[in-house]
Amino acid sequence: MGNLNPIQILVDTVSVGGLYALTALGLGLIFSVMRLANFAHAELVTCAAYAVFALSGQPVAVAIVASVGTAMVLALATERLAFRPLRSADQTTMLIASFAVSMFIQKLLIFTVGSRPKPVDPLPILAQPIAIAGAQVSLLKLATILACIACLGALTYLLRRTSIGLHMRAAAEDFTMAQLVGVRANSVILAAFVLSGFLAAVVALLFVAQTGFVHPRLGVQIVLVGFVATVIGGLGSLPGAAAGGFLVGALATLLQALLPAELRPFREAFLFLIVILVLLFRPNGLWPAPGLKERV
Amino acid sequence: MNGRAPLLSVRDLVVRYGAITALDGVSLEVGEGEIVAIIGPNGAGKSTLLSTVAGLRRPDAGGISFAGTPIAGGALEGTVRRGIAYVPEGRHVFAGLTVLENLELGATVRRDRAEARAHLESFLDAFPILRERAGEAAGRLSGGEQQMLVIARGLLSKPRLLMLDEPSLGLAPKIVDQVYELVTSLRRDGLTVLVVEQNAGRALAAADRTYVLNAGRVRLQGRSAELTGAPDFDAAYFGLKD
After folding, report:
1. Dist CA A179 CA A164 (whole Å)
2. What are the C-alpha distances in Å from B174 to residues A86, B143, B156, B190, B200?
3. Which of A126, A261, B130, B193 stands 20 to 30 A from B121 (CA)?
4. In percent, how much of chain A has pLDDT > 90?
5. Contact between residue A285 and residue A275 where contact means Cβ atoms under 8 Å apart
6. Domain ranges of chain A
7. Confidence label for B109 from pLDDT (cuts 50, 70 and 90)
8. A179 vs B77, B97, B137: nearest CB
9. pLDDT of residue A296
10. Using the beta-carbon criterion (under 8 Å), do B106 and A181 form an inter-chain contact?
11. Residue pair B7/B161 in contact by the 8 Å Cβ criterion
């Protein structure tokens, strides 16, 4: 890092931004259908990462399948056990419940596997750099970009071209009216949790491959930034969440590359300063959801 | 009513919001193939009645039965599966979805996909403006177009009973004509319609029978033709008699 080769910066920006975009989308899916800011999303990421760690001796395909499975099953379990009984409760109650679920799983992890970071390197083959137009770019970053594009494409297809996607978008706009035309509440909510679990696992895999460590607060780190991205993008708007993720990733990378060396440790402070400025001028985010705007 | 069991039967329905009693023992019946109107001033309980039948609220007392089966409780998405399409007040289009997507959502419960598609096409033929703007966000349609869209969306579920809440609200008189033309044309297809209106004249003209609701009670009921100009109509409507 630190050199100003534009290709290098572009690749860094898109690979970091893509991870935040997928995180923000995972959060945004749940928020849009349930109006739940799901803090426990962090633990979906963390547990998916630990699944990779637990299977580090196995073929990488096994680890990937296990981590995706872990995050999806955990997402469904939290919905069934924690959020479904509270579905008719107000948003604050659900928010607090998601904190409780998040803390519970995090402490359970610390209790069972310890709080110390553990090294894991699921995809060593991707560590080697390749040269593109004079810049040294790691295969891992390119793979991250490809994975993000694939996920965004698949999610867009699902939401725009399938009937469950149509039902989810209808429910996101007006849940009651969606039920009145016959959309089943459980179907759209379960679909949202399955998808958010899948996205959490993808984020976990890519993040673990980039950092080489797992620890119980890994998910929280990413998901906090993911929340910032959804708020900047516009809560409840999925394109907004994705764009907000890329924007936050781009800002973080650019600050890292452009700030003088002595200010770099304070990168996050500058990042959040920009976030505050955005929200001062656009309190609903940059690309607010139409349904939410009407209620203001 | 032809002496047959009514399609919808509401018995002594009581609905309260905290200390306020919105419906205070309302009974009404809607026979198969009838158009029935509920009229009354603002706050009479008309919308509460429809939304309770639709399953949005639970009755505090009394019962509702549809096609001979008691309904109350259960998931909201069961309403349309029973054959009740509810078009709430305020034109709830899915504003960010396209006109076509709104119509497709109307056919969510249909299993006969090919027929549903043909049915959808028939609405696009009947309302060329909807076909013209099929790919646009429904929120960009005018009020009248949105009203046609939500009625068409309701009809696409192939309901036995269509419940319309204030379909004329906020629309120009010419558009209201079109809405009521559509409603009366539905009778030919054997559809049963229960419509709530503040616009008493319109409702009386379109409906076979009318109930006058005021302060949560049925004050007057009868064939629409007989209610029009009935000596106690104004008193009932404005709540002057008790």
Report:
1. 13
2. 46, 12, 24, 26, 16
3. B193
4. 68
5. no
6. 6-218
7. very high
8. B77
9. 29
10. yes
11. yes
**Residue B108 to residue A290, Cβ atoms within 8 A:** no
Beta partners for residue A132, in sequence order: A135
**B77, A176: Cβ pair inside 8 Å?**
no
Cα–Cα distance measured from residue B198 to residue B167, given in angstroms and rounded to the nearest whole number: 10
Q: CA of B234 to nearest chain A CA: how many angstroms apart? A: 35
Interface A-B, measured as beta-carbon pairs within 8 A, has a size of: 67
Q: How are beta strands B192-197 and B35-39 bridged, if at all?
A: parallel
Tokens of B66: 């549809």
A119, β-bridge pairs = A213
Whether B107 contacts B116, CB under 8 Å: yes
Nearest to A163, CA basis, from A195, A188, A197, A185: A188
Angle at A21 between CA A16 and CA A27, to 5 degrees: 135
Mutate to test the interface with A, among B52, B98, B100, B105 (most CBs of A within 10 A): B105
The position carrying tokens 């800002």 is A251
Q: Which of A181, A287, A295 to mutate to test the interface with B (most CBs of B within 10 A)?
A: A181
The pLDDT score that the predictor gives to residue B46 is 95
What is the ipTM score, two decimals?
0.93
d(CA B85, CA B36): 15
Distance from CA of A11 to the nearest CA of B (A): 34
Cα A186 from chain centre: 23
Answer whether residue B1 is part of any domain.
Answer: no
CATH code of the domain containing B155: 3.40.50.300
Can you tell me which residue has the tokens 């598609």?
B117
- Tokens 């009407």 locate to A294
Q: Residue B189 in contact with residue B183, Cβ under 8 Å?
A: no
Mean pLDDT over each residue of chain A, to the nearest integer: 91
Say how many domains are in chain B: 1
Residues of B in contact with A185 (CB under 8 A): 75-77
**Helix extents (H) in A79-138:** 91-113
- How far B2 CA lies from chain A's nearest CA (Å)? 31
Find how far residue B77's CA is from the centre of its chain.
17
Domain that holds residue B199: 8-237
Q: What phi, psi does A43 have (nearest 5°)?
A: -75, -25
